[in-house]
Specification:
The structure is a single chain. The protein is mainly β and 144 residues long. The chain has a domain of 86 residues: Gamma-B Crystallin, domain 1 (Sandwich), CATH 2.60.20.10. It is built from no helices and nine strands. 17% of the residues are buried.
Length: 144
């Protein structure tokens, strides 16, 4: 049987003294068996289905060919007056990703009025033609 060593602090020095500790048992010590954590039970209630979030955008440019100053309008944000974005009557081209079942509409006047240009799917219009420098509002609408 071994004699354990006990460490005693004297002043600022540590001194080890042999044979001063409690007697060791001759039986080997074994760790108590640990129980595995219980899996967390899930409630039996039906969980609500998570709907996939639709994403999309319209990026409008001041110049043709997707050039010049630009502003992005994320789906489903409607902009009643592009002047609020300092972009009234400044659109000349557009890039867009319109979610399935939706359409993005560029209107000539504020408040979603007058002539309009409908954008569907993903793509770009490098020249807005008769809407060039006339776009004043943008709205997302569900296709029927």
């Amino acid at each position: 049987m071994k004699n354990p060593t006990r460490t005693i602090l004297i002043g600022f020095a540590l001194i080890a003294v042999a044979g001063c500790g409690p007697k060791e048992s001759t039986k080997p010590q074994t760790a108590a068996p640990q129980q595995a954590p219980k899996p967390q039970e899930t409630p039996k209630e039906k969980q609500p289905e998570v709907q996939k979030r639709e994403e999309g955008f319209i990026r409008i440019y001041t110049d043709r060919q997707l050039k010049g100053r630009q502003v992005m309008i994320p789906f489903p944000k409607n902009v009643r007056d592009l002047d609020s974005l300092k972009f009234n009557d400044a659109c000349s081209s557009a890039q867009f990703e319109v979610p399935s079942g939706w359409m993005a509409i560029l209107y000539e006047d504020k408040g979603f009025k007058k002539s309009k240009r409908v954008l569907l799917g993903n793509g770009s219009k490098r020249d807005l033609g008769n809407m060039n420098d006339k776009c004043s509002s943008v709205r997302w609408e569900k296709r029927g």
